[in-house]
Amino acid sequence: MADMKHENVLNRLKTAEGHLRGIQRMVEEDAYCIDIIRQIQAVQSALNKVSSILLENHLNTCLITAVRGEDPQERERVLREIVDVYEAMSKV
User: Which GO terms describe its biological process (predicted)?
Assistant: First the structure.
């Protein structure tokens, strides 16, 4: 993964981690439920963005390498991974 994307992913994860700690505090302090839900949505959004960045990187590196490669089993494996990830995301 390119350094800029790697740094971007790490920063987003650290931000999500900070929000998650904030949510824990809010629950401990019995904050207003809607405020907690909004913070949860912010964390989910941040994690979705991280997933998108990682998936884009995977498609542009690992998938392309496998598709251009000579091993048909590797192509099938990588394509199956993409389908599995998509199906898992659809269940959420």
Answer: negative regulation of DNA-templated transcription
Parent domain of 36: 2-90
How far is it, in rounded angstroms, from Cα 6 to Cα 29?
Answer: 35
Q: Burial of 28 by CB count in 10 Å (0-12 exposed, 13-18 middle, 19+ buried)?
A: exposed
18-42 pLDDT, tens per residue?
Answer: 999 999 999 999 999 999 999 999 9
Here the tokens at position 89 are: 């995301």
Query: Residue 39: which CATH number?
Result: 1.20.58.1000
Q: Report the number of distinct structural domains present in the chain.
A: 1
Total-model pTM = 0.80
State in Å, rounded, how far the first CA of the chain is from the last one: 26
CB 5 within 8 A of CB 57: yes
